[in-house]
Amino acid sequence: MPLAPTRISELRSLLVDDMRDMRANLRNQLQQLGIDNVDQAQNAAEALKLLSTNKYDLVMCDYNLGGSTSGQQLLEFLKGKKLLPPSTIYFMVTAETSYQKVAAVGEFAPDDYLIKPFTASSLESRVLRQLEKQDALAPVMKHLSTSDHRSVIAECDRLIAAMPKYSLELLKLKAQAFQDLGRPPDAREVYVQVLAIRADVPWAQLGAARALKASGEVEKAKAAIESLIEANPQFIGAYDLLAEVHTETNNEDAAFATLRQAEAIAPSAHRARLVGKMAYQVGDLEVASTALEKVVAETRNSVTKSFTDTSTLSQVYVESGEPKKALELLKAVQKEFAGEPAFLAIAAAVESRAQRDLGNNEAADAAIKKAIELAPHAGAEAALAVSGACLAAGREEEGAKLLENAVRSNHENPRLVALAKRVLKQTGHAAMTHSLIDGQIKELADMTATALSFAKKAKLDEAVTMISEALAKLPDNAGVLLAAAQINLLWLSQKGLNVEFVNRVKAYMAKLESLMPGHERVLKLNHFFRETLTRVSAAKTLDRAAA
After folding, report:
1. 422: region left, alpha or beta (phi > 0 left; psi from -120 to 50 alpha)
2. CA distance 485 to 511
3. Is there a contact between 150 and 63 (Cβ–Cβ < 8 Å)?
4. What pTM value is reported for the model?
């Protein structure tokens, strides 16, 4: 059914462009289509402010905003923070000369690209196409807005049969719904279905590789990603996934090299941030310094600014023998990040090391005292920075305790474990690696493995008792929480519905979702939880009916 012309005129629109003349030209074109409700922003910060307080039907954003945040970076930030509703149409406006580069590297694709110059009639046809697609996919989006992934899958199946025109888009939504339900094998089947229709769809190839990784088939995933990169060397999302695979298999150097490749293809503050943090992790302070200096400079007035860039760079400076630069950097942003506990703890730790290097022992002692006080409320990475300051100052007992606690709460986090090992090596305490890191990781892994083994042998009460004792000691350890949720679910599966156990698992899952948002293992466990609850509830209903 053709769309009524009034449908376009009712759209609330936002124009984002740093050039006044261009905004005026775009507004004139929108007015030719009958669109009068138009707001304007000249940079990403203004756009973010408007998007945070208003709902727009159409956003037209120039790729080159003339500042530290591009239109693509703004799109990535908005989608990453879930500030852009699925119903909002996002058009990227770009010159023809840069289109290939922009389209190739976009990790979050806009709904369409408008190549300058374009006419009002061309704009109208693009808008009508998007509105028609919105109407077609509306039943799916309704379920997606409430995270009803099962209904998303059912609706996709219905619409694929009714509207084959949108089959690829619907299959993509269906595959993502399976991923969100923690069912990677089913997601992979859908991606394979897409590739049977069109063999050269990069997002489907990447999705299939991601599903392999989530299913534990890491080597197959790695091979699939490498093939994808060979065929599509500009497809940045593939490099990200490959870096994840390398990190999870403890191949830091390969992860670092992969991130550097991606940054060379698509240089940006986001890419430099990833390279800088990984460079610091592997101990390449020269690359870390260059990359993080770029990030700090480019995001100074950007919506993508992060205190972690400055705090990591300050650590790079002090470890590179540049204490004055570290102190100057921290002083410049101390008011700006005064509300960030992690920044304050790291800043105090860095100040302690810098002042001691400069011979100001009294100032160093005051700073380290402050850092130790802040550490318990600042997170694991900040605790490691404070640990390093303690160890560098000869306060081995305090430093070792901070590091040990950080690892015990995050023993399955490869980045944190790597940083902990780096702290010991960099401060001349590598001999403590086994007792503080490797030894306790093995102890924790053995403890959870033993509890899971009891559960699988149907010794469920013993397993619950053992994992509960472990959790009492380590209430925020993601690995122990995962095991605790799994063991309690196995108990429910075997012994039937029990409200206490259900509430216990709900509490574990809530904490896991906070500690590991969107993680594949949490998604799979959530799927197991839903299935178990459905099954045991149905069994109890049947028992009541029989009685």
Report:
1. alpha
2. 11
3. no
4. 0.79
**Residue 34, C-beta contacts closer than 8 angstroms, at least 6 positions apart:** 5, 6, 8, 9
- Which of 103, 12, 10 lies closest to 63 in space, CA to CA? 103
Between CA 390 and CA 399, with CA 396 as vertex, the angle to 5 degrees is 50
pLDDT digits (tens, 9 = 90+) for 130-162: 999 989 999 998 998 888 889 999 999 999 999
CATH number 3.40.50.2300 is the correct assignment for the domain at 1-133: yes
Q: Quickly name the fold that domain 442-546 has.
A: 1.25.40
Going from the C-alpha of 209 to that of each of 204, 214, 494, 512, the distances in angstroms are 9, 9, 34, 24
With bands split at pLDDT 50, 70 and 90, how would you rate the model's confidence at 547? low
**pLDDT of 207 higher than 50:** yes
Residue ranges matching CATH 1.25.40.10 in the chain: 230-438, 442-546
CA separation for the pair 456, 275 (Å, rounded): 42
CATH class of the domain whose range is 230-438: mainly alpha
CATH 3.40.50.2300 residue window(s) in the chain:
1-133
pLDDT tens sequence across 19-34: 999 999 999 999 999 9
